[in-house]
Fold this protein.
Amino acid sequence: MDAAVEPFKARRIYLLLRDRIAGGTLAVGSRLPGEPDLAAEHGVSRVTIRRALDQLAAEGLVERRAGVGTFVRGGALLAPTIVDFSDVFSHLKEMGRRTEVRLLSFGYTQPPAAVAEALGLGPSDRAQRAVRMRLMNGAPFSHLTTHVPERIGQTYSEAELASQPLLTLLERSGLRVARARQSIGATLAGPEVAELLQLEIGAPLLSLTRLVEDEEGRAVEHLHALYRPDRFNFQMQLQRTGADGARRWSPLPPRAANTEETATSRSTRSKRNSSP
């Protein structure tokens, strides 16, 4: 059997079993079939099954007991971090408070041409480049690469960036951040990012590029972020707007969305409290 095919087969089995655990088909505490039975069921080698089970065990989804078997664990699936796509800045600050960040690199360099153009930098201009990783409850979910014009980057230190959200540091420097343009796509994890995010090489990732601007329309930060899709997702509340015959879906303003959510929560709590 082609050795290059085995990792892809192992990942297919891993994803299949992971979906069954997440969906409740494999109940908490239940014992999985043995490696020979799983190998026969899926038409793969025992080595492939072992790789898939090892990945599930590494994520805490199953427990492997020597001489006994493999059992589904409870409460292991992590709830994804959710960000409201229409209220970026509020959620950036909140994320800074609720998650752990690890600064992987910090320095000044000439950015790639596309980044330099987006930031309005000249050919010889430098930018402060930082690479960070965010974790929730010790589990990594994002890999962030930021470029900030050198004049702005010099207003904060490496130690400060390691302990405070970049947006907070930008505003502390006197900048009045006003808007951002961002796009979302998909990509595959390269070797370095895969290792940091605890994924296999080639695993799918959410890819986000954001350009932050001040009130004068000057670009002050370029962000390229990679997210594990099983631990992070975006959401947006929509409402129907426009005249009859030309109605469309439009983003619900963040404040209105929060008010509606609060009202719904209060109504739900009221019904629960009044239930016999």
Summary: DSSP finds ten helices and twelve strands in the chain.
